[in-house]
Amino acid sequence: MIDHTLAPLPKVSHSDIVRRGLRCQCPNCGQSKLFRSFLKIHHRCPYCGMTLERGDGYYLGPLCINYGIAVFGAVAPLLLAGFAGWIPFMPAMIAAGIAALLLPLLLYRISWSLWLMSYYFCLPDELHANRPEDSDELLFEEEHRNGMNVER
């Protein structure tokens, strides 16, 4: 495997971030997929070395996206339709239960990608490719960022 971590990358635009997010690719380089298996995200991008899974609490973004889509996009409408009598109650309950169990699994990958896309769309300077060339400190490295911001 070639070490691409020091190779200069072209600047990443907002449209690049969105395109890479919709394709489940690394937001920094766009050269590799985010996942190494169905439910395992790469800790670091195999191509550019950017940290994708940053630590405690970072999974809450994808969790909220996943939960919001599953509950407000499928489970709640099915339950409301069943309670309102638009569809029979028991089939609505069964469909809502199945949706509550299956949708989070099916949406897991896209939820991570949408989270990374949203995060870096709002903070594009956090991407290594958008850092100044003479910068040794990478903002996406949480331990470095926390160490730089805390002065006691």
Question: Short description, anyone?
Answer:
The chain is an all-alpha fold and 152 residues long.
Report on this structure.
- The chain has helices spanning 14-22, 60-84, 89-122, 142-149.
- It has 152 residues and is mainly alpha-helical.
- It has one domain (14-126).
Total number of beta strands = 0
Please state the average pLDDT score: 83
Radius of gyration, taken over Cα atoms and rounded to an integer in Å: 19 Å
Sequence stretches where pLDDT stays below 50 over 5 or more residues: 142-152
Characterize the overall form.
Answer: elongated
- Return the structural class: mainly alpha
Tell me the domain tally.
Answer: 1
* Amino- and carboxy-terminal Cα gap: 41 Å
Beta fraction: under 5%
- In which range does the helix fraction lie? 40-55%
Count up the helices: 4
Q: What is the element string, with H for helices and E for strands?
A: HHHH
Keywords: Membrane, Transmembrane, Transmembrane helix
Transmembrane segments: 59-80, 86-108
Protein name: DUF983 domain-containing protein
Pfam family, one: DUF983
Properties at a glance:
disordered C terminus, mainly alpha, elongated, 4 helices, 152 residues, membrane
Question: What's the topology here?
Answer:
Elements: H1 14-22, H2 60-84, H3 89-122, H4 142-149
Helix pairs in contact: 1-3, 2-3
